[in-house]
TrEMBL record:
Region (Disordered): 125-144, 298-318, 403-428
Family per record: Belongs to the helicase family. DinG subfamily.
UniProt protein name: ATP-dependent DNA helicase
MF (Gene Ontology): helicase activity
Domain of life: Bacteria
Gly residues compositional bias, start-end: 303-312
Length: 654
């Protein structure tokens, strides 16, 4: 893998590398990254991997390879930095000046227990500033999201380095400066998307980007390009602006919020293929009112900085930033272009009521035009080959199967067929973008270490959740395993129903359910109790690492297809059908294959792990698309024989 990554970096060809759990893939790209002659960015999907790279992998590598990278010369030691979104750093302006209230006036610490917690965070931030620390949320005292908002700002609330009196000490600015001096910069998918695709400069100039956890890239880029609009948000922006202007423009924005509320009340939730007249008019009103309000803010006096003795008013800067963000979102929604998907999401009244959401119909085009055409990109993950080849993932990130430089069998050559996949990718950049794909294998002997059991005798899952047959099967499997089970469910309702039923049937076992405590706490309890089971939904499918005897049975209740009423997925599926492709296979089946592979991957985490992945959905072996899904899973020994699996679990438990 290291040699392939080095070749890609020197040749400029893009590279897809499937590297299973336990291969040490971070070293496979960090070694060539440190040897490369220009800056390399490493983008991850999760903070956990970011933390692992910066705190463990890179320092260990630099120490081990010092005699090669910088023999006898400490000054030549390779440098690295981590770069996160602004809201991940404490803001010294907010710490020292206070938090704006609903009208935008700065207020001091809240009363009660929360005030004491805020004081702790403020004291920590000041200590970080004095010692030259990072001010990073990960190193802060224990806190909630609500507490962290008392000492941090998002991008629209930030005054900017030119106006903030504390810019010289700013943690976020220091992180950017360190990144600009480093050979390797570790960041996340979202920040990379904002920098490369939206064109907002967030990352210092670089030559190559390595995208780890690349199976999540499309979803993270979509998330970064999704905007939301709610009535309370508009009303709050109007109130914050009122004290900074002389006219009635803030009142007009409030009136526009009322019009939007009326229009939303008349609009049924779900995807909006066409804009109802009342909603179109209300969005135009919000857009125009926001634009007028932006113009009503007084021009700032030249030369002054904010804060004590400065000319610039931080409350005004932040209020104006809020309104500008509202204007951009309302303008995008009112335009209702074919390249966007607009929908109304249901929310409780006490959470602000229903809100409008808009997301890109696809992200492969912007990825191709703005990232792949400009930079050399290495994509890596344990799950890049879906259905036995790279075509599905390559197409989703903007690469065409016909552009692949080699098509050898050991590199997973195209079962989907280049022409069909190219058609699904559509047309974007005319420039050919050659790429290679390699599977570097796994240190695990899946056929000996794991069994893939499909409960063929069960009825296909229905819309009403878990039936009696499924609950009986779950109970028998867990009883045979004597606990030690990770239950991955397609919905919170199914996970809760299974937990409730199993507590009654198997009272001697500990049944933990997602939502009953924070995930790290649940994971700790799961590991500590040899007879515990942990049931949950999506965050457990991808984010849990529990090697050893803790987990010897992974239960999956059904194939995790997206919901038929999911606005974005259904729109993408329909668009693929219109383009002449197979929308179900390219969207729904690909989504399910990726999650199944990630879920099944929870079982075998070391060379000594043993166990069973049990899928309670017979469609995996009876439906035509089942072969594609099975080819996406680790190559465990397959069976549909219930008695064989129960015996194997009992032997493991013994």
């Amino acid at each position: 893998m290291a040699e392939a990554v080095a070749r890609a970096m020197s040749s400029g060809e893009h590279l897809l590398v499937q590297a299973g759990t336990g291969t040490g893939k971070s070293l496979g790209y960090l070694v060539p990254a440190l040897l490369h002659h220009r800056r390399v960015v490493v983008a991850t999907a999760t903070l956990a991997l970011q933390h692992q790279l910066v705190e463990r992998d890179i320092p260990a590598l630099l120490d081990a390879a010092e005699h090669v990278l910088a023999p006898g010369d400490e000054q030549r030691r390779a440098t690295y930095a981590v770069l996160k979104g602004r809201s991940n750093y404490a803001c010294l302006h907010r710490v020292r000046e206070g938090v704006p209230d609903d009208q935008g006036a700065l207020v001091d610490i809240p009363e009660g227990t929360m005030g004491a917690e805020v004081l702790k965070l403020r004291a920590w931030a000041e200590e970080e500033s004095e010692r030259g620390g990072t001010g990073d949320r990960d190193s802060a005292p224990k806190h909630t999201d609500k507490l962290w908002r008392q000492v941090s700002v998002n991008h629209r609330e930030c005054l900017g380095a030119a106006k903030c009196p504390y810019a010289a000490e700013c943690f976020a600015e220091r992180a950017k400066e360190k990144a600009a001096e480093s050979q390797v910069v570790v960041t996340n998918h979202s920040l990379l998307a904002i920098d490369a695709i939206e064109g907002v400069p967030m990352i210092p100039e670089y030559d190559v980007v390595v995208i780890d956890e690349a199976h999540e890239l499309s979803a993270r880029v979509t998330q970064a390009a999704t905007d939301e609009l709610s009535v309370p948000e508009i009303e709050r922006a109007a109130r914050r602006s009122q004290r900074h202007i002389d006219g009635n423009e803030a009142d007009e924005l409030t009136d526009a919020a009322d019009a939007l509320r009326d229009a939303l009340d008349e609009t049924p939730p779900g995807r909006l293929d066409s804009l109802p007249v009342s909603l179109a008019d209300a969005l135009a009103l919000v857009r125009d009112s926001a634009r007028a309000l932006i113009s009503a803010f007084p021009k700032e006096a030249p030369g002054g900085q904010g804060g004590p003795g400065g000319d610039s008013d931080p409350g005004r800067t932040q209020a104006r930033g809020w309104v500008q963000e509202l204007y951009k979102t309302a303008e995008r929604m009112a335009a209702h272009v074919d390249s966007d998907v607009l929908w109304l999401a249901e929310r409780e009244r006490n959470r602000g009521g229903n809100q409008l959401c808009v997301a890109p119909l696809q992200v492969w085009g912007p990825l191709r035009d703005k990232l792949l055409t400009e930079k050399t990109v290495v994509f890596t993950s344990a799950t890049l080959m879906l259905g036995g080849d790279f075509n599905s993932v390559a197409t989703s990130i903007g690469l065409k199967p016909s552009e692949r430089a080699t098509h050898s069998v050991d590199e997973g050559a195209g079962a989907t067929g280049p022409a069909a996949a190219d058609s699904a990718a559509g047309e974007s950049s005319d420039k050919a973008l050659p790429w290679r794909g390699i599977d570097v294998g796994s240190p695990f002997d899946y056929a000996r270490q794991g069994i893939l059991y499909v409960a063929r005798h069960l009825p296909p899952p229905g819309r009403d959740g878990l039936g009696q047959a499924q609950l009986d099967e779950i109970s028998d499997l867990i009883d045979a395993a004597d606990g030690r089970t990770l239950g991955l469910f397609s919905s919170r309702r199914a996970a809760d129903a299974a937990a409730e039923a199993l507590r009654e049937r198997l009272p001697h076992l500990t049944i933990l359910a997602q939502g009953e405590a924070q995930l790290p706490e649940l994971a700790r309890l799961f590991v500590e109790d040899p007879h515990a089971c942990l049931f949950g939904t999506l965050s457990l499918w991808q984010g849990l690492d529990v090697p050893g005897d803790t987990c010897q049975l992974v239960l999956i209740d059904r194939i995790p297809f997206p919901r038929p009423d999911d606005p974005l997925m259904s729109a993408r599926q329909r668009a693929a059908d219109k383009a002449g492709g197979n929308g179900f296979m390219s969207v729904a089946a690909t989504h399910a294959a990726l999650l199944l592979a990630q879920g099944a991957g929870r079982l075998i985490r070391t060379t000594s792990d043993r166990g069973v992945v049990a899928i309670l959905d017979p469609r995996l072996v009876t439906a035509r698309y089942g072969g594609f899904l099975r080819a996406s899973l680790p190559p465990m020994w397959p069976t549909t024989e219930r008695s064989v699996v129960l015996s194997a679990l009992k032997r493991l438990a013994g």
